[in-house]
Amino acid sequence: MSIEVKVPTLGESVAEATVGEWLRQPGEAVAADEPIASLETDKVAIEVPSPVTGVLSEHSVAVGDTVEVGAVIALVEEGGTAQAGPEETRPKGEPGSSSAQTEQTGTATAPADSGEVVMSPAVRRAVLEAGLDPTAIKGSGKDGRLTKEDVLAAAQSKKDGAKKDGIAAPAVSAPAPAPASAPASASGERRVERVKMTRLRQTIAKRLKSAQDNAALLTTFNDVDMTAVIEAREAYKDLFAKKHGIKLGFMSFFAKAACLALKDVPSVNAQVEGEEILYHDFVDLSVAVSAPNGLVVPVVRNVESMSFAEVELAIAEFGKKAKDGTLTMDDMKGGTFTISNGGVFGSLMSTPIINPPQSAVLGLHRIEDRPVAVNGEVAIRPMMYIALSYDHRIIDGREAVTALKIMKEAIEDPMRMLIDL
Known about the structure:
Number of strands: 18
Strand content: 15-25%
Largest sheet: 6 strands, mixed
Order of helices and strands: EEEEEEEEHHHEHHEEEEEEHHEEEHH
Number of helices: 9
CATH architecture of the largest domain: 2-Layer Sandwich
Radius of gyration: 25 Å
């Protein structure tokens, strides 16, 4: 008996999604509640589970198609038996193949076609280009799936190992030889690959452009001496980790410092709604997190009433969920102020863009030793540039500078955060 697999409810005000990838192919056995497809919405990726145990018999839509809530995307034969050979279950031109893949005239078979490793089109392409065996790579994605980062890391490790052994390793493996009818690719040939933007990336692009179009953006800068925070972390890191089960990081310090500033300068925690300004007496902190499909911004709520440990635990949990692709719509809703840490990628300075409808965002950057004047003498201190981008329509320059100065003072003297100064 064929059972329809339908698009589930996607969240409030979300009526459609894009088919991101097929996790199971026609002819493969599936268990009840096992994810068979990944859908991309404006904010998160949602996995669609099989309603029954059986065999996936048909893909009704292709990767990249837009589907509405309730639409049938696949059929599962309840209680069916999987076909013996994986080659028979993957006809050429199946809907699960990516239109973004570069055309190849060779007939080499991807390691992923063995049916042992489930890979997205992008990951499969990376495996092919690197000439790796996917079964030998440990996946860091959900349920141990391979990510593109896993493949790139494995390729680099292979290259470094070859260099260590005195062997010149090629950057990528050559594709299978082309038939005589097709001209051979010239050495050094330049290629262009056309890849459709994911729904999430399209939404990010629209929101960032909207911020530029609708807000009067301005950025103010300052620098922070991180000595006190670094010393505090070093002194209490072991006790903190033992008691709370989480490392004491920099983000909790900046989150609490931001709460002090937003309390004293409420316009930085406000937003424009029509001809009105909404002021919040709470801080729902949006924390920019890097995910496989792009930047996502989950919200840590009521940070003003949280402890350092609670902030660290919440951020760590969101980071894990972002990596696993399990963030929900509720995780992303709201937010009154954003912190974005470009320093983890090595950024020295930047002008972050606000996260609409919020009116301000704090940008953190890398810490580096620099000579500074301390009590009339030159000293080497661990310094960080911080930036506050804000909507000049409701935040004056004086308010923005004051808020950033409060954050700077709180970081340089963490006791201020304990006695609310």
